[in-house]
Amino acid sequence: MVHSFIFPQETIASIQERIEVLERCLNDANPQDKALAEILELANSRQISLNQLKEEARQMLHQLHKFMKLDKKLKEKEQQGDLSILLFVRYNFLYKEIMDNYWDFFLNQKGKEAVKAMTLSLGKFYMELKKEFSFKDYEKDELYIIVETLKHITQSVITVALKINILTEEKFKALNLKDITPQETETMLTSLASMKKWDQVYRKLA
Prior knowledge:
The protein has one domain (2-205). It is 73% helix and 0% strand. It has eight helices and no strands. It has helices at residues 9-26, 34-46, 50-79, 85-102, 109-132, 142-163, 169-174, 186-205. It is globular, with a radius of gyration of 18 Å.
């Protein structure tokens, strides 16, 4: 189940590109660099100094590197056939934090394409789950945790898509997602996922 919600390769490639661009920015790369020029333009549009922007870039880089480590670990778990709900929750909420706090670093064309792809894929996965399962039958189990986590990240991605003008209110309504308001907080989902982790450990011991 979890493998369906690991971000697609084009999203990961976009993140890797952002890491490279931000690192060049921090290392005072050639100002003629097209990607770096976009970062400088961002500083000008927000009316902040380059030093302020670099500080934000350092913070974002820290979060992106953490996310990439989680992505690698989650994929390793997937290959081993080891369902890791807790890791999945942490993975998605870390990316939600990145999108919430650093959305304007995705204003370039490739960033916009990645956000658009995520919006469509997250909406598609959510609708497929609604068709296949009755949530009442899965309350507080792995599926419930996955769906509630998915609602959080979907809301963040859609908000960013609206901010950077790759999604209109009309197109959002056309997705027909309806009830994507989470019923559980990040803290509660982490707690539920932690209990499921120990349930699996105990089952293996038994």
